[in-house]
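Page header: ASSEMBLY MODEL / two components / 585 residues total.
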Amino acid sequence: MAPKDKIEPRSAGAVQPQTLRFSEPLAFRSGAVLDSYELVYETYGTLNAARSNAVLACHALNAAHHVAGYYADDPDNVGWWDNMIGPGKPVDTDKFFVIGVNNVGGCFGSTGPRSVNPKTAKPYGSSFPVVTVEDWVNAQARLADRLGIDSFAAVMGGSLGAMQALQWTISFPSRIRNAIVIAAAPKLSAQNIAFNEVARQAITTDPDFHGGNYYEHGVVPRRGLRLARMIGHITYLSDDVMMEKFGRALRTGAIGFHFDVDFEIESYLRYQGDKFSEYFDANTYLLITRALDYFDPAAAHGDRLSRALAAARARYLVVSFTSDWRFAPARSREIVKALLDNRLDVAYAEIDAPHGHDAFLLDDKRYHALVRAYFDNIHAAL
Amino acid sequence: MTGQEKGILSGRSDFQAIAAWVRPDATVLDLGCGDGLLLRFLKQTRNARGYGVDIADANVLACVKNGVNVIQSDLERGLAGFDAGSFDCVILSQTLQAVLHTEEIVLDMLRVGREAIVSFPNFGRWDLRLQVALGRMPMSPELPYQWYNTPNVHLFTIADFESFCADHGIRVLERVVLHRGRSVRAFANFFGSLAVYRVEKKR
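Prediction written out in full:
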């Protein structure tokens, strides 16, 4: 039963997450090994007979495998990229078989710090391996193997999800035909890492953190998570859109000469932080911000991204947003330059949108028209 | 030639001349590429590996629809993102008259490309001269705008362009002048409506 106000008629509908168990060990870039693990995923649409129409949608920091549609028993829980993926949508699930997967280290069902380590019979907690984008891509490739997908028609994502799409073209050049790289950067800047570090410090200095093993203490470092989310949220929005949305509006109409909520923006950030701390795992937040920090495919190639992409064979759609100051258009242009150096096929669009980094999740007409046109061509070439 | 290719050619009479100068398998950068049809034509006829540059959202979308590579970027800010000598050929098709930084763009084209192809509407054609002589800003199939809504900010003649090349160390390798798709051989600056040049930097 769909909620009347939220679900568009062209939704992927009621969906159900599935779980696959993997018993072959997963070796991490750090050297750590996970003997076995589970991945939770969802699929939308139908895999065609040639198994050529599969699309992988990679999640960023806060999301997971629930990309499109809703849950029958929780109809308000709509997938994070539901405006992009579904029947008749830019990524049309009448044509494509789309997969969303919760990455290893996540907190939405795939094996992560909250899972029980079979060796100790306790949650992994701080002992969970530090995971990288390369590790995620390797795990995603195993999922593709199990689903009988040799090659993806496309791997797509925004922000950290886009980094996975880019990494796919490096790690598995023969298994990906198109990479949709939205609001991305080829590596984090010092400022990006600095924001992540503040978020991590907020979590690790929370007295309820207990060195990452808070599960055993029956507590959650909620204050730290709230702060981490508040900091992150500031970087997802542009100054302009924040000003337009909240301005200096006051909760009660007058300043209160206290340190409780005066301004609407404070109330909004607290609300976002509270909501987030209810469901997100602090250790996963640490892991994912670290995966962002460590992503730097050029590092192993003398800091030359062009060399890192030398083996890539995919075609690329790269999209940036003018008001995104977290991963500004110049960062996407670095990727485009490296693709050009390798004479790879690329379409690059710089969308003039006011919303900042979050624009990749929003329903911007020009952005969606581009993705739709690009996928129409992918479909025509199937 | 397919019907579609004919369709492409009927719209832009300089495409054929440009294609004749693009070597098979060449790497091509098309500045102000519009809907990308020239690039698609060069891919089909010369197996060119092409990239377009355009600033307009609608053109970037059209290029994606037409399946050609495109980079959304403002020509007026230069070609800083492109390495010297990184393309066999840089094309500016009927765009030079519409740019502000004329000198910078032409010189940057010849930095990025080993050679450049430039086409432009010839303001020196007799019927345009006549319209000016009669006191009005001219209009023609190549210049279909009124003075108040034209994107063309730098109108110039064949003679002007050749003098520009001479002054800027640019060697003209080949020239084709057209009127209604046919080659104009004599008194080109008087009878030609569209000029296409292949040029390189004097070294």
